Amino acid sequence: MARRPIRSDLAWSSADRIVVRGKDLPGEILGKLNLGDMAFLELTGRTPEPRESKLFNAMVVTLVEHGLTPSALAARLTYLGAPEAMQAAVAAGLCGLGSVFVGSTEGCAKLLSEAVARGDDARKIVADNKRIPGLGHPLHKPVDPRAVRLFEIARETGYYGKFCELMEAVGKMKGLPVNATGAIGALACELGFDWKVCRGLGVMARAVGLVGHLLEESQQPIAEEIWLRIDEEASAHLKPKK
After folding, report:
1. Mean predicted confidence (pLDDT) in 64-82
2. Residue 192, class by beta-carbon neighbours within 10 Å (0-12 exposed, 13-18 middle, 19+ buried)?
3. If residue 12 lies in a helix (H) or strand (E), which one and from where to where?
4. What is the pTM of this model?
């Protein structure tokens, strides 16, 4: 049985060269591309135009931080048990980026891209989907200020199009605000990204935020106090009263 060829078009290196997507890392990338632009290059094979750079960087910056979220708590508690392995604590936090937190960008982008391909309107989407990712937020009501600003930047850069319009129309029909992940899912579609990469945008962004949480945890620890308080309260009903 013949073996299939092994191939990657992302990068290669030799004794004196490192090339990423056809660009020399020291000569064409370092000092010229910011982290967001580098991510765009890695994902698309080209450097972004200025308008794309402004929008894409805004999208990923949005997902870096949102306080003591479940992912941040998971990272901090893991760090408490294994402070010698920051990478494990970051990984623990990233494991929680799914259909509820951050990773809902993927569900939103998939829903929108498939709906547009079929020619579905907002009414059809609402009728066919009991739960629509990217809508509503337990804290940000009646609007998510992150989504508002992202759509403003999309208009400024000329990328507010059919996906954004459809997402906002669905939100109005459901009576729910478009949240940050909904806006990012729509904007990823506007930029031409495959919906399958959208959760990855959240992963790369939130990893930055988690490193910040772990640095703070090393300087101002709270994980042990969280653990002890939860243990005390959760088991209080089992202990004899004094």
Report:
1. 95
2. exposed
3. strand 11-13
4. 0.92
- If we measure between CA atoms, which residue out of 191, 179, 192, 51 comes closest to residue 103? 179
Question: Helix, strand, or coil here: 160?
Answer: coil
Look up residue 25 and give its two tokens: 């890392």
| Per-domain boundaries in the chain | 7-45, 49-236
> Pick from 99, 133, 151: which is nearest to 125 by CA?
133
Q: Which band of pLDDT confidence, cut at 50, 70 and 90, is reported for residue 100?
A: confident
- The whole-angstrom separation of Cα 204 and Cα 101 is 14
Is there a contact between 133 and 159 (Cβ–Cβ < 8 Å)? no
Answer whether 109's CB lies under 8 Å from 189's CB: yes
Helix or strand or coil: residue 72? helix
Q: What stretch of H or E contains 18?
A: strand 18-20
Contact 198, 109 (CB under 8 A): yes
Instruction: Say if CB 123 and CB 166 are below 8 A apart.
Output: no
- Which stretches within 119-222 are classed as H helix? 122-128, 145-157, 162-174, 180-190, 198-219
Tell me the C-alpha distance between 60 and 44, whole Å.
15
* Cα 167 to Cα 171: distance, rounded to the nearest angstrom: 6
Summarised one tens digit per residue, pLDDT across range 202-233 is: 999 999 999 999 999 999 999 999 999 999 98
